[in-house]
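Continuing the series of single-chain predictions for the mutant panel. This is the parent chain; the variants come on the following pages.
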Amino acid sequence: MKGFLAKSLLVTLAFASTVFAQGGGLPQDIPIWDQDYLTARALMLRYLYPLSMDFNGGGARAKGMGNAFLGISDDVTAVSWNPAGLYRQDDAYSQPVMALGYQSISSSATFRDRFYGDLPWRNFDYKDDLSGLDFMSLLLPIRIKGHMFVGSIAYSRLGDEFYNGGASLDVEMPFDYQDYIDSTYRPFHYHNVNNYRSWANVINIGFGTRVYDKLSAGIAINAHGGQAAQTMTETFSWEGLIIPGLDGRQRAYGVLVNEIYDTTSFSGVYFTLGFKYVTPKLSAGLVVKTPHTLKETVDVLAETKAWVNGIQTSGVGLKVHSDDNVVELDQPLVIGGGVGYKVLDQWLVSADAEFRAFAGGMINRRDSLKLVPGGTDIEFFTQIDPHWKNAWVLRVGTEYAWTTNLRLFPTIPLRAGFGYVQIPEPNRVGTTIEIIDGVVPDWAYIYERSAMTRWSLGTGVSWAQIHLDMSYEKWSLDRNDNAVFREQSVDNSALNFMFTGYF
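Parent structure:
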């Protein structure tokens, strides 16, 4: 009996989708919809990569100053920012230094979907929290034939990102041919919830040294990797399905649930070349990050379940695994510069600017793999244009070292900062279309810059051999897609602690 119900439900669902594509029961001016469109609406927020691509350095001090650290970079975190700062002109390192950092993140995301201009907005909320080690570094000064080099290795947990999406629709629609002729409409419900989280880590290995007078230089190799995880639950329900073969053409309540779980691992390697020029009052830094490929491997598990009048149908329940899907993302050349200026001996201000050349970058999806015995396998890719735009990043920060004359807390730094981070994937604010010789081409979307803002505060306490730093960050990102009536708002906050010890 369950097998028969399963087959009947599949036949009915297929027919219902066909009728729904004709627009039955929906406002007359809505474009042609179908089940694939419903699913696609919720999948538009399925980012399989860190959306902001804001790969920076670590450390509670830098974060407390709004990450405006390229022109300063004068502590144990320098290898993750500007490796030229590992060599300090005025106070060169003479002993090893170690640092450990801890971070606690709280995220809140809201996705609003209107589905159509005349329908009400639906909200989909998502919250998550995590904490753990986010920075670790070891710095070691070395003399080679009388020349000082400062080497360092560091681990940073880059910014975690949280997103969610969804779509929901409740309408009246016909379910079979007779209903369609008689203009009889019955309830149809669609609901989709989609949550996504990504996190990235980076290992920095590099050194810095003085090259001429007040000028130092450094180089670092950076290996970054991470994971992304997503869950999606999609529910269809029909009230009034006719199950073929049942006496009296009985009607039933049918439910179909699709669940998708995907996990993504990504990795990439690039180099950072840095320069730093220092005077008693002013320091300036220049950083160049090489282009590279961010390679992702995606594993997907999809499961489908169905019920008729509360009885689960065994014929529909199935699981599909799709593993080792490879996607490669072009990562841009990044050029950044920063300055730090001492207004007073205890008061430092800083400013950074970065240019990230994302425009023209592609996403390459591997479609097939040809095995070559005894040779190199041949991969075949499809190139996808994500419409990325070049991105600018602007950051400002300040630090005041308050000398208290207290033995227990001799120096207390006070910090604050702000950052404006353009992301490569822009908002879609509308569409345009041009009819040429009676032929309607594809819709052309109008894009507008999307950006994230970051605010931060920081403090701590410093002794001769030990520094303790703390920062609080808050960042937000608002996105919209007016072409399909959706809006998204993400608000994250993080508390960071870091211990630095001089041996």
